[in-house]
Design goal:
By secondary structure, the protein is mostly helical. It has one domain. Helix content is about 75%, strand content about 0%. The chain contains 4 helices and no strands. The longest helix has 21 residues. It is rod-shaped. The termini are far apart.
Length: about 70
């Protein structure tokens, strides 16, 4: 019976450790402009550029990705 509680405690600790490590993503700037998105693209930070564009426009992932890719042409 004690073994079950130990295993359950280990599983909970691992779950919360993994959950907290995933939440440490960089924050997006508050006043994002299209120029910020273009700067990120020039720096090779395409994923960050898409995230910023989504935050700026409210578009979905697919539409934001397509719009950002058009900017890099």
């Amino acid at each position: 019976m004690n073994l079950i509680f130990i295993v359950a405690a280990i599983i909970l600790v691992l779950f919360f450790a993994m959950r907290s490590s995933n939440s440490q993503q960089p924050e997006l700037p508050e006043n994002i402009t299209e120029e910020d998105v273009k700067d990120l693209m020039r720096e090779g930070k395409k994923i960050q550029a898409i995230k910023c564009y989504r935050a700026m426009t409210g578009l979905g992932l697919k539409d934001a990705k397509e719009a950002v890719e058009k900017m890099e042409l």
